[in-house]
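Render this sequence as a predicted structure.
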Amino acid sequence: MSKYFLLDTMDTMDTLTGIVNQALDCIGKGIMIQDINRRVVFFNHACEEITKWSRAEVIGKDCGDIFLCHTSTGMCLTEKFCPGMEIFHGGLSQGSRELLIRRGDGTESWVKMSVSPLKTPGGKVTHLVSVIEDISDIKRFSDEVLRSKTLSTLGAFAAELAHEVKNPLNAMNIQMTVLEREIHDIKKLGDRAKKELLDVVTIVQKELHRLSGFVEECLHFSKTGELNKSSVHVGDLLSEIVSLLLPQAQLQGIQIEFVIKNALPEIMIDRDKIKQAILNILINGIE
């Protein structure tokens, strides 16, 4: 075999490697390849966009030291629960997990990491290929849905409980008032005895008044409450709501078209309550 043939073969391989790298850089999802020591050997452009780490900062380093993968409660996932390590140790043929990672700009972001092995013809794992997706918007949408449903459930429960308790409290209060009058009208009782009985009635009435106040607070919570109005740009608010809903809608095969023909004015509204109301309507539509 001549040296010229070897040089041509090497040149061809280099060309093919360059083509593959360029192709992987054109993919919208993050592609990361690691060796058996978890050192990063390839990091495409989408990975740089998602993680805010540059290729130069990551190549040759342990991904766990870079991303510090963890859960929302702070539990570290870089070793025991790392899907890549589970594949290397033979626990999984492939793995997928949602992780919180540290990004290069100092912020944190939710990603979905799907990991598959690269094997020799003999079946030995030599590298891992991880597909990384930014799911921060989907997580944010899920949190908004959960918050909305939780508040709705709590409000309904508070209203039902308050109505159930309010009527017996009113009846008890009326009976205590009647009892107070009866005590005053009993002529056989001495002043001291009347005073002792009236003191007991007063204590009970105070407690009933306190419980009635608590019931009113529950009813207040179940309603709209006081409005916290401020000047809000309607277009910005609607744009924010659409950005929250868009990822989940796309997962359901729903396209949201957001068009504002004319500039919308700023109006005085309770921003949070209007946002929640519109979100609830659109969430119900998506579901």
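Summary. Residues 136-185 form the longest helix (50 residues). The radius of gyration is 33 Å.
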